[in-house]
Amino acid sequence: MTSLHSFTVRSIQGEPVSLTRYEGQVALVVNVASQCGFTPQYAELEALYRHYREQGFVVLGFPCNQFGKQEPGSPDQILDFCRTTFDITFPLFDKIDVNGKNTAPLYEWLKNARPGVLGTRHIKWNFTKFLIGRKGQALKRYAPSVKPQTLRSDIESALSEG
Which of 107, 77, 76, 62 is nearest to 13 (CA)? Predict the structure, then answer.
């Protein structure tokens, strides 16, 4: 698998979704959680999505319960929380593992394509972000502490590339 578009994942409603539907778009892939200190980043992620979506930008949220059990809810509970608390309209997917023996194939690819600090492939916490170019290539990886609003120049640069 060599691009984001090579993968099929499950929507938060459990339906298979081919990521080919995002071909030609810039994507920000984020492992999210509802009970994390970084959860307020949902608001910034949604703001980025609303600001840039007409230019071909999408945020793809993947709930994950591997860090401090901070995403314990069912898909319906997660969706309800995201919609009522942050008015999330960007796509959310089924809860996944981003580390360990059950790591989702998408995250195996992301971690290998864009290792973290000192070459580590391990995802350190919720709200690790990966910027994906229009051709499905992994462009950058951002730590959980990096606020989504600070990614504007990188998003704009990716959007301007053909």
Answer: 76
DSSP letter (8 states) at residue 92 = B
Its pTM stands at 0.95
The Cα 99–Cα 63 span in angstroms is 13
Structure tokens, 94: 């089924």
Q: How far apart are CA 7 and CA 146, in angstroms?
A: 26
The per-residue pLDDT for range 4-15, each reduced to its tens digit, is: 999 999 999 999
Closest to 94 in 3D by CA, of 124, 73, 70 = 73
- Bridge partners, residue 121, by sequence: none
Domains observed in the chain = 4-160 (3.40.30.10)
Contact of 63 with 33, CB cutoff 8 Å: yes
For residue 125, give the nearest of 7, 14, 32, 2 by alpha carbon.
32
**Catalytically annotated residues:** 36
